[in-house]
Amino acid sequence: MGFFKKLLGLGVAAGAAAAVVKVAEKVKENNPAGFAGADGKTDPKTVVNEVVRAAGEFYHETADAVKEKAPEVVEKVKGFAGGFAAADGGAGEDSPAEDPEA
What is the pLDDT of residue 74? Predict the structure, then answer.
């Protein structure tokens, strides 16, 4: 179990890193000139607001992509699970058909 926990942790870390990169790309895309004002100074509020906006855009794009792909993935999982049910004769572990006392 420890191996899978570490593997899941690595997957989550990699996903988070990829998300940060995508948000940074969105911020750069939305502000090609940068954040410096007329006086050459950068307002931290502006930067935070732009990062929040870019994160929201990224979230919505990702959510739309997941919604689009979800039915396909569900069908694949059903097909995969159906293969196990067929190999098991349609009976699960707790099925009375396999219970020697039944």
Answer: 87
Q: Whole-model pTM?
A: 0.58
In sequence order, what are the residues at sequence separation of 6 or more whose Cβ sits closer than 8 angstroms to the Cβ of residue 42? 34, 35, 36
Token pair belonging to 99: 């219970």
Q: Is 40 left (phi over 0), alpha (psi -120 to 50) or beta?
A: left
Cα atoms in the 13 Å half-sphere on the side-chain side of 25: 7
Backbone angles phi, psi at 39, to 5 degrees: -85, 0
| Furthest CA-CA distance within the chain | 84
- d(CA 93, CA 102) in angstroms, rounded, equals 13
C-alpha of 24 from chain center = 17
